Amino acid sequence: MNEREKLIVKYASDLKEKCNLNPNMELLTKVTIGCGPSIYNSDSSTLSGSSEAEQKTIRDKFLIKKLGLFPEDNLDQGIQAVIEQYGRSNRHKYRAVFYYLLVLYFGKESVYK
User: Where are the domains positioned within the chain?
Assistant: First the structure.
């Protein structure tokens, strides 16, 4: 099992344990691959839900640029909903898991087909 596969297993476990979700492994794999090399760096593989700068990056680079959403699509509401779902007190929010949850929240699975 290569490093990316190990991380995907870890992310699936996180979704099951912290979000009570049984993930679609194909979609989780594609979202993880879409994160690129950031998943291998301890700093960039996680994100802070309380950071305004982090939320702006998520909104601009992932939701608008990658998923093709628009500012009027209640992006901040979606980010806050995912923070709640993942656990506001959870200090280790994996970027790939967070993005996976956003894809589900906004119904944008087709982006990864």
Answer: 3-112
Whether the full predicted model's pTM is greater than 0.85, yes or no, is yes
Residue-by-residue pLDDT tens, the chain, 113 positions? 899 999 999 999 999 999 999 999 999 999 999 999 999 998 899 998 888 999 999 999 999 999 999 999 999 999 999 999 999 888 889 999 999 999 999 999 999 98
Superfamily of domain 3-112: Jann4075-like (1.10.238.120)
Token pair listed for 62: 């992932």
